[in-house]
Amino acid sequence: MSRRPAGVAAIKNKNLAQAKYKDKGTEIAESQFAQMGKQMEMFKHNLEDFASKHREDIRKDPEFRLQFQEMCASIGVDPLASSKGFWAEMLGVGDFYYELGIQIVEVCMATSKRNGGLIGIEELRRKVEASRGRNSQAISIDDLLRSIKKLKILGNGFCVHRVGESYLVQSIPGELTLDHTIVLQHAQENGHVTQSGLIKSLQWEKERAKRALDFMVTEGLAWVDDQSGSERSFWFPSLIPDFSTSVS
């Protein structure tokens, strides 16, 4: 026997049921969204209360400031979004990071002639702290990284490269490839490399090692030393803390 097609009434009932399910789903989704919105507002209100109570700790203690930033990020609040507004007035953190950004630029400009615009994050922190004076707020590596992120508005000159367990800050336009980063990682322990050392350790072809080193010398990121032994050495001032004082 052939199956009889569903009647018009059955089809209408089915469509009506589907429409009801859809409306109910929309109603539930809207209710959940509204509830989430209320929770977020409550979190932000509590965060503002917390900031008011711990204002001085946030301003003066780098570790406390980091924890506060992470709390803000967890609910989508960016205290650094502007140098004006509630957070800037309440904590001064907006002004703090913009001021720190200017000091980072000044240090990078002052050291670029010797390091080619590539400076270790620890050296950068020491020099920025020295320029700020004894009575200024303490700063952390996290503070520097957040300020550098804000400096991207200046163009592609400022960026951060992860090298091993630390960072190098690049303050001039230029593209460092993976090969260049690998060379920096290889040089991190002693501050210098040789072409044959790269070839042996990294299993590179001679031309690959030469191309990477030539680029870094041309860009001022590496210095050539022909007096250290039988083979030319390539030194990276950005990997030698306070290298300028050691050679003066």
Quick synopsis:
This protein is mainly alpha-helical. The protein has eleven helices and six strands. The strands form two sheets. The chain has a three-stranded antiparallel β-sheet with strand order 1-3-2, sandwiched between helices.
Notes on the protein architecture:
There is one protein chain. The chain is mostly helical. It contains eleven helices and six strands. It has helices at about 10-55, 55-60, 60-75, 85-90, 95-115, 120-130, 140-150, 180-185, 195-200, 205-220, 245, and strands at about 120, 160-165, 165-170, 190-195, 225, 235. The strands form two sheets. It has a three-stranded antiparallel sheet, sandwiched between helices. The protein has a three-stranded antiparallel sheet with strand order 4-6-5. The longest helix has about 45 residues, at about 10-55. The chain is flat and about 95 Å long. It starts with 7 loop residues before the first helix and ends with a helix. Residues about 245-248 have low confidence and may be disordered.
